[in-house]
UniProtKB/TrEMBL annotation:
Keywords: FAD, Flavoprotein
Organism this protein belongs to: Noviherbaspirillum galbum
PANTHER family with a match to the protein in the record: BINDING MONOOXYGENASE, PUTATIVE (JCVI)-RELATED, TRK SYSTEM POTASSIUM UPTAKE PROTEIN
Name of one Pfam family that matches: FAD_binding_3
GO molecular function, one term: oxidoreductase activity, acting on paired donors, with incorporation or reduction of molecular oxygen, NAD(P)H as one donor, and incorporation of one atom of oxygen
Stated name of the protein: FAD-dependent oxidoreductase
Length: 502
């Protein structure tokens, strides 16, 4: 079979390696750096990511290591203007009804540890210097720390190597978009904060922006904000004391220690292709966008899960190579929408001028305050931010609709009579869910194909979730619905899967 070569050992590459390994696909993961990053801007792990991690047996460890924030406080002109509480808003939608604050550097170390436990070691100080796609495989050139070079043959190459991706540059795909004019900073500090422990804070003051993320109970905090005026032109020499701290002081934050501080520019770009032949792009190599909503790292992790099961299906001979085209079709469409949306939000947040300041100080807080008092609006906002609304209804892999659930939808989460329909199956793979009764020919067919059949006694909770009694919901390995049908026969399943086998 050969090992899938993954270039880049950030969260996207590590998750891809974990998902492939869990499905019996050998991998080789390299990274040009000597170790995991020590400074990180990505802070938030959303509910959908935790659901994907749950299939790897990782979710509970990540939650235990992180800091759950169920409330977000918004400030303007030195006053708390609005608060959004997500705990109850997401309780009916996911096992993880919160925003988890878990810095990327800690996150990466946990993923590396789990990969080590599975017998896969990240090859550090190893750079991808070139590659050739022959049509039947990829031949890649690697340069190691000692300067020696190695030629590697791999069935597939996946570039998870960040915004300056070597893989993307070598493929020659466009990276459409631009760079924001503002300079941003990130600082790891020890501080005393206003409000309840673990509450995330966001402030807007005269064009300044700062986000505050407590990430443990000892007063450790990450600050992310803007550097304005002439100081933005000397990024290399800036220190924390040099930045304009009106927004920080307006929150009543008292910083006692600065552990580290760095500056960076933010881009919003998307690659014109996510797949070229046997080469793929995922995570920041494929798309970068503003930090609005904390979507970047989570989107890369979802890329990895989406691509991993499709590569596994092809390499195990369970699907034709054509299924790999659906990776770009599904993930690029979402990334395009995300880049556009976060760009609009971030442009508004960082915009200066009298009218913009008035809107941020008065209009936006009023709308947020109104939203915080509406259960429906809060629930919608949580589903939107947490990526549990992401779906692939237009994908060539999505078929049918029964009740309110269609092919391409994320399966609705239901916990009823002590049964959690998101509880992981014994192995990552296709699953058939039936809420009610299932015919014996269907179970026999699924058994012959290695598809787990999971039946749940019909309840009113399933009906409220939009599921239909006795219907067949065939779930892809990433737990999105592939096929939803009332025609509950083995022949229906066979026709769908035969089309995938191509």
């Amino acid at each position: 079979m050969g090992k899938v070569l993954i270039a880049g050992a950030g969260p996207t590459g590590l998750t891809l390696a974990l998902w492939l390994t869990a499905q019996g696909i050998p991998v080789r993961i390299i990274d040009e750096h000597g170790g995991p990053g020590t400074e990180s801007r990505a802070m938030v792990v959303h509910a959908r990511t935790l659901e994907l991690y749950r299939q790897l047996g990782l979710a509970e460890g990540v939650v235990a290591a992180g800091h759950a924030a169920t409330r977000m406080q918004f400030w303007a002109e030195g006053k708390p203007r609005a608060a959004l509480s997500f705990g109850d808003a997401g309780a009916a939608s996911t096992p993880y009804p919160f925003v988890l604050v878990f810095p990327q550097d800690r996150h990466e170390r946990l993923l590396v540890q789990r990969l080590d436990e599975l017998g896969v070691t990240v090859e550090r100080d190893t750079a991808l210097t070139g590659f050739t796609d022959t049509g039947n495989h990829v031949i890649a050139q690697l340069r190691k720390a000692d300067g020696s070079e190695e030629s590697v043959t791999t069935p597939y190459l996946v570039g998870c190597d960040g915004a300056r991706s070597v893989v993307r540059h070598r493929l020659g795909t466009d990276f459409e978009g631009s760079t924001y004019a503002h300079l941003f900073y990130v600082a790891d500090v020890e501080a005393k904060l206003p409000g309840p422990p673990g509450e995330a804070q966001f402030a807007l003051d005269h064009g300044d922006f700062v986000a505050v993320f407590p990430y443990d109970d000892r007063g450790l905090v990450r600050l992310i904000g803007t550097v304005r005026d002439e100081r933005a032109g000397r990024a290399d020499s800036l220190r924390f004391d040099d930045i304009h701290q009106d927004a920080i002081r307006s929150l009543g934050i008292s910083v006692s220690t600065v552990n580290w501080f760095s500056t960076y520019h933010v881009h919003h770009r998307i690659s014109s292709r996510f797949r070229v032949g046997r080469c793929f792009l995922a995570g920041d190599a494929a798309h970068v966008h503003s930090p609005a909503g904390g979507q970047g790292m989570n989107t890369g992790i979802a890329d990895a899960a989406n691509l991993a099961w499709k590569l596994a299906a092809v390499l195990h001979g369970q699907a034709g190579a054509g299924i790999l085209d659906s990776y770009e079709a599904e993930r690029r469409a979402f990334a395009r929408q995300l880049v556009d949306t976060t760009d609009r939000v971030f442009t508004f947040i960082t915009k200066g001028g009298g009218f913009a300041e008035f809107v941020k100080a008065h209009v936006a807080p009023t709308l947020l305050s109104a939203a915080s008092h509406s259960d429906h609006v809060r629930a919608f906002m949580f589903r939107l931010v947490s990526q549990i609304m992401v779906g692939y209804q237009d994908s060539p892999l999505s078929q049918g609709k029964v009740g309110q659930v269609a092919g391409g939808d994320r399966l609705p989460w239901v916990q009823a009579d002590g049964m959690d329909n998101f509880a992981p199956a014994d192995a990552i793979g296709w699953q058939l869910h039936v809420y009610g009764n299932v015919a014996t020919d269907v179970t026999a067919y699924c058994s012959s194909r290695g598809i787990a059949v999971r039946t749940f006694p019909w309840t009113a909770a399933h009906e409220r979730a939009g599921l239909e009694r006795d219907a067949l919901y065939l779930l892809r390995p990433d737990t999105y619905v592939g096929l939803a049908t009332k025609d509950a026969t083995a022949d229906t399943l066979a026709r769908y899967l035969a089309a995938l086998a191509g």
